[in-house]
Amino acid sequence: PGGGPGRARSAEITNVAHRGASAYAPENTIAAFRLAASQHADVFETDVQETKDHALVLIHDTTLGRTTNVEDVYPKRSPWKVSDFTLAEIRRLDAGSWFGTKYKGERIPTLDQALDDMRDRGIGLLLEIKSPDLYPGIEERVAAALRRSPSWLRSDPAERRLAVQSFDWASVRRFHAVLPDVPVGLLGTPKAADLPELASYADQINPTFGDVTASYVTDVHAARMDLLTWTVNDAGDMKEAARLGVDGIITNEPDVLRRVLDEA
Ligand code: G3P
Ligand code: CA
């Protein structure tokens, strides 16, 4: 592995804002990413998918219904898959009003837009390739977007500037083959026995909090990888995650996590 965000050589726990500061602003919008930075998250996490015309957009669900007004704007196009809409169509959608009137007019961002907007805000990026089976070739297009924004690539790994993760480990491998200098993470909980082999390309193992034990953390570290856990919103759970020795905590409430880490 080429090193990576928050690797075990750092004693500090990385504060990762899940879909941005998504407890307080509509997930996966520029507003949520900026708020994460102002709440002193170290990193913001977001999900990348592709439009019909292969633009890279940041949204969690593979359909547009939950987090936009797509049902009003395009009532006849159920089930409103991301991949059935062009970027121009998606840019017409309101991705903020569902969360609160204050956020009316927020748009689904493109990856390029987020890379550009967040570049100088002192925050890193944990980019999840979401459902890559729906988007053959997405790894190359994500790599191309990152190359268009070289300041995200040009940094000391200790700065925890950028990592790419997915639940689809084959996709993570494909991405790693294209851009080997970017640290990569595997979402899920691989068997401890498989960790040494996975460490041939992976830098992070990122399990759900319920799966994390002190001995699993030790196993991940023994394989020279980091462990970031999700999605931890309760202050007591944050303290417990810290006690178990995790390297990063992914939370909807980076302000709460910042307080917990500062008090520790
Ligand atoms: O970063 C971890 C987390 O984002 C994985 O789950 O469903 O929120 O993308 P999900
Ligand atoms: Ca995610």
UniProtKB/TrEMBL annotation:
GO MF terms, alphabetically ordered: hydrolase activity
Residues of the GP-PDE domain: 13-261
Name listed for the protein in its UniProt record: Hydrolase
SUPFAM superfamilies: PLC-like phosphodiesterases
Keyword tags: Hydrolase, Signal
Keyword Amino-acid biosynthesis recorded: no
Top-level taxonomy: Bacteria, Bacillati, Actinomycetota, Actinomycetes, Streptosporangiales
Residue runs in coiled coils: none
InterPro entries, per database record: GP_PDE_dom, PLC-like_Pdiesterase_TIM-brl
Organism, scientific name: Actinomadura meridiana
